[in-house]
Specification:
55% helix; alpha+beta; two-stranded antiparallel sheet; disordered N terminus
C-alpha cells in the first residue's frame, strides 16, 4: 500500500495469522518504543524504599502513565462533523491530487496515533533532559531515540505524504500532513522540527527552484534521506533582514555555482546525526546587489556535495536555550561553501516567504499542541489531586478531600486550555483546507485561483501564528498553575511544556511583527479589502443561526455578528488615525491581533456548537460538553476583546510621551 497503511489497518480482510511477520511500521514502532523505555531510570532490584521513596515512585509511575494520548474523538468531530473533510476531499481534482477518502484519512490518523503514543511521546522527556550535544563542526548528536524514530518515519513514507509524485511523494492533500503534524507536535515538538523544517525547504524549492535543482535535490528531501533548514538571520540582524551581509560570489568556470561566505545564527536543526546530508536555504547578497531587502538572493547550500564530500561550512556552536532542547539551534559558518541560486536574483526574501509561511503555520500548530498537552497533563492531575472541600458542599465525602477539579477556579483554567486546544485546532483545519485548494491550483497552473487562496491564507496566517502561540503559551502556563507547587518540579512535566512553547511567540516573527504584518501590510496596504471580505464572510457564517430556535446558538450567532461589525469599525478608526500618525498602526497592532484572534476563535466555536446541536443521540454527553464549552468561550474568553478594544483606541502618546532617558533614573543611562 502507498503508505504501508496495512501496518495498522483494521480491515476485515486482514489475516489473523499470528505467525505472520509484523508490518514494517509496527516493527519499527516496537523497536523505538523499546529503546525509549530503556532510557527511563529503573530502580535497583531489591533496593529498600522509604515511605517518601515509595511515594515518589508512585508519583513517577502516575506521571509516566499520563503521556500524550491522541484525541481522536475530538479530531474526528472537527474533521467530519464541523469541516466536512470527506466532502472537501471529494471536491478536489483527482487528476491533480491523489484521491483521498475517509478510509485513507482514518488509516493515516490511526497509524500516527500509534507512532505518537508508542514512539515519539516516550522520547520527549529524554529530548529535554539530554538534548543535542555538539561534538565538532560537522557532528551534533541528537537526543536518545530521535535518530531511530526518524528512520522509521522516513522508511514508512510519512515525509512524502503530501508532495508531488513526480519527485517520489504520495501526492495526497497537504491538509492530511497538517493533521498528522498536530498530533506529532503534541507528542514531541522538538523531534517534529527536523522533518517539519524539511517541508519548508521542499515547498520553497518546488515553488522557486529550477528544474535541475528540483530533479537533483527534491527526491532525497521528500524521501527523508536528507533534511532541510532555512538560514535567515545573522548576529547583527535579528528580524531586520535588510542588514544581511552573507556574500554569494559566482565561481569562475562553474556556471550556476556560487561561493557562499558568512555567519548565520538561530538555525534550528542546522546540524545533526539523523541524516547524512542537510540542505540549507540561505539568504545572501550577490556582488553589486542593491542595499536592503531588495538586494537579497536565495541559495541552496548542502552540507555535503553530491560527491559525498563535505562542503565548506560547519557549526561553530549550538545555543544553550530555555527549552526545545531536543532540537539543536546552530550557528553556522559558511566559508566559501558551494551553493546554487534558487529563483530570481535579488528576490530571495520574497522566495523565502514560501518557507517562512510554512513555518508560521507550523508554529501556530505548536501553540495548539502545547495547549493540548498541557490540558491532558492538567486534567489527570485535577481529577486525582485532593485538597479541601468544595464551598457548596462535599463532592466526594468518602475521600479525605475533594478533587480540585470541583473548584470553579480550577475548572476555569481547564476550560481555557480545552477551548484553546479544540478551537485552535479548528482554526488550523480551516487553513489546511485552503492550503489544499491552493496546492491544487498551483499544480493545475491556475494563477487566478492561486492568488485568491494565497490572499486568504496571507490574512489568516498572522492571526493563527500570533494569537494561537500567545494563548497556547497561556494554556501551558495554566498547566503549571493547575499543579500548584508541583508544576514547578520537572518530574511532573508541566514546566517542560511551557519552556518548549515559550519560543513560539518569538520565532518566525514575534507576536509584535505578526501584528504589524496583519494590520499594516495585509489590511492597510490592502486598502481594507481583506478585513471587509473577512467580516462579510463572518456575517454570512452566522446568518443561518440568527433565527435559530436554539436560544444559546442564536445568542452566540448575534454575538459573532456584532463583533464582525465592531472589528471593521475598529479597523476604520485605526486607519483614520494612521492617516495623520503612522505610529497609530504600531501602537494598536498587538491589541488588534488579539482582538482578531478571540473573534476568530469564537466564530469557530459557533460552528462547533452548531455541529454539536446536529449531533445524533448516540453520544449525548460528548455533544453536550461541546455546547457547554462554547458557552464558556462566549462568556469568559470573548469578553477579553473589551480590553483589547480599549487598547486599540488608546492614545498613541500614552506610549510615546515618556522619553527614552526617563524610563529609569537608576540604570540603563
Amino acid at each position: 500500500a502507498r503508505l504501508h497503511y496495512s501496518a495498522l489497518s483494521r480491515s476485515s480482510s486482514a489475516s489473523n495469522d499470528e505467525t505472520r511477520s509484523p508490518p514494517r511500521l509496527m516493527r519499527s514502532a516496537l523497536r523505538v518504543s523499546q529503546r525509549a523505555h530503556r532510557l527511563r531510570p529503573q530502580s535497583a532490584p531489591g533496593a529498600p524504599a522509604s515511605v517518601a521513596e515509595a511515594a515518589r515512585g508512585a508519583l513517577a509511575a502516575a506521571v509516566s502513565s499520563r503521556a500524550y494520548h491522541a484525541p481522536l474523538r475530538e479530531m474526528n468531530f472537527l474533521l467530519y462533523d464541523v469541516h466536512n473533510f470527506e466532502g472537501h476531499y471529494k471536491g478536489l481534482n483527482e487528476e491533480v491530487l491523489t484521491p483521498c477518502d475517509r478510509e485513507t484519512v482514518d488509516m493515516v490518523v490511526d497509524a500516527t496515533k500509534t507512532m505518537c503514543e508508542d514512539v515519539l511521546a516516550p522520547l520527549n522527556e529524554g529530548g529535554d533532559r539530554v538534548g543535542s550535544v555538539w561534538k565538532d563542526p560537522n557532528t551534533v548528536v541528537t537526543a536518545p531515540g530521535f535518530k531511530d524514530a526518524y528512520k522509521m518515519y522516513a522508511e514508512n513514507g510519512w515525509q512524502a505524504l503530501s508532495f508531488p509524485e513526480q519527485y517520489g511523494g504520495q501526492g495526497l492533500p497537504m491538509s492530511l500532513a497538517l493533521v498528522q503534524s498536530e498530533m506529532i507536535a503534541a507528542a514531541n515538538w522538538t523531534w517534529l522540527m527536523f522533518p517539519g523544517l524539511s517541508k519548508g525547504a521542499i515547498n520553497t524549492i518546488i515553488a522557486h527552484g529550477s528544474e535541475d535543482l528540483k530533479d537533483e535535490w527534491l527526491p532525497s528531501l521528500i524521501s527523508g534521506e536528507m533534511t532541510g533548514t532555512m538560514c535567515l538571520t545573522e548576529p547583527q540582524c535579528g528580524s531586520d533582514l535588510g542588514q544581511v551581509t552573507t556574500k554569494a560570489v559566482p565561481i569562475d568556470g562553474a556556471e550556476g555555482e556560487y561561493s557562499i561566505s558568512g555567519t548565520k545564527i538561530f538555525i534550528s536543526c542546522g546540524e545533526h546525526d539523523m541524516t547524512d546530508n542537510i540542505v540549507h536555504c540561505v539568504l545572501a547578497r550577490l556582488p553589486d546587489a542593491p542595499a536592503g531587502t531588495a538586494g537579497i538572493s536565495l541559495f541552496l547550500v548542502p552540507k555535503r556535495l553530491k560527491t559525498g564530500e563535505l562542503n565548506n561550512l560547519g557549526t561553530s556552536r549550538i545555543e544553550d536555550k530555555m527549552g526545545c532542547h531536543g532540537s539543536p539551534t546552530c550557528q553556522l559558518e559558511f566559508e566559501g561553501a558551494k551553493g546554487w541560486l534558487i529563483g530570481t536574483p535579488n528576490r530571495g526574501l520574497n522566495h523565502m516567504f514560501t518557507f517562512i509561511n510554512t513555518s508560521r503555520l507550523g508554529t501556530a500548530v505548536q501553540g495548539i499542541a502545547a495547549a493540548e498537552l498541557a490540558f491532558q497533563n492538567s486534567l489527570w492531575y485535577a481529577k486525582e489531586r485532593r485538597s479541601m472541600r468544595s464551598l457548596s458542599g462535599s463532592k466526594e465525602p468518602d475521600q479525605v478531600a475533594d478533587a480540585i477539579i470541583h473548584q470553579p477556579s480550577v475548572r476555569t483554567m481547564l476550560l481555557t486550555q480545552k477551548a484553546v486546544a479544540e478551537g485552535g485546532r479548528s482554526m488550523v483545519y480551516e487553513c489546511a483546507k485552503i492550503a489544499d485548494l491552493m496546492q491544487q491550483a498551483e499544480y493545475a497552473g491556475d494563477d487566478a485561483a492561486v492568488k485568491q487562496h494565497d490572499g486568504r491564507l496571507a490574512f489568516l496566517t498572522p492571526i493563527l501564528k500570533g494569537f494561537l502561540t500567545e494563548v497556547g503559551k497561556e494554556a501551558a502556563d495554566l498547566g503549571i498553575q493547575v499543579y500548584g507547587g508541583h508544576g514547578y518540579i520537572k518530574d511532573n512535566k508541566a514546566e517542560q511544556v511551557f519552556r518548549d512553547v515559550r519560543i513560539a511567540s518569538l520565532w518566525e516573527g514575534t507576536t509584535q511583527i505578526q501584528a504589524l504584518d496583519l494590520l499594516g501590510r495585509k489590511i492597510m496596504l490592502g486598502k481594507l479589502k481583506p478585513i471587509n471580505e473577512h467580516a462579510a464572510g463572518l456575517r454570512a457564517q452566522c446568518t443561518p443561526y440568527l433565527t435559530s430556535s436554539d436560544s444559546q446558538l442564536r445568542s452566540h450567532a448575534w454575538s459573532v455578528l456584532y463583533h464582525s461589525l465592531e472589528w471593521q469599525y475598529l479597523t476604520y478608526r485605526v486607519a483614520m488615525r494612521a492617516a495623520s500618525d503612522k505610529e497609530a498602526i504600531s501602537s494598536s497592532s498587538v491589541d488588534y491581533l488579539m482582538y482578531s484572534g478571540y473573534v476568530t476563535l469564537a466564530a469557530h466555536w459557533l460552528e462547533m456548537e452548531a455541529a454539536a446541536s446536529r449531533g445524533g443521540p448516540e453520544e449525548p454527553d460528548f455533544y453536550k460538553a461541546k455546547r457547554q464549552t462554547s458557552e464558556f468561550v462566549f462568556e469568559r474568553l470573548l469578553p477579553r476583546t473589551r480590553a483589547h478594544k480599549a487598547g486599540i483606541l488608546a492614545s498613541v502618546q500614552s506610549a510615546l510621551d515618556v522619553s527614552p532617558d526617563a524610563f529609569s533614573f537608576d540604570h540603563a543611562r
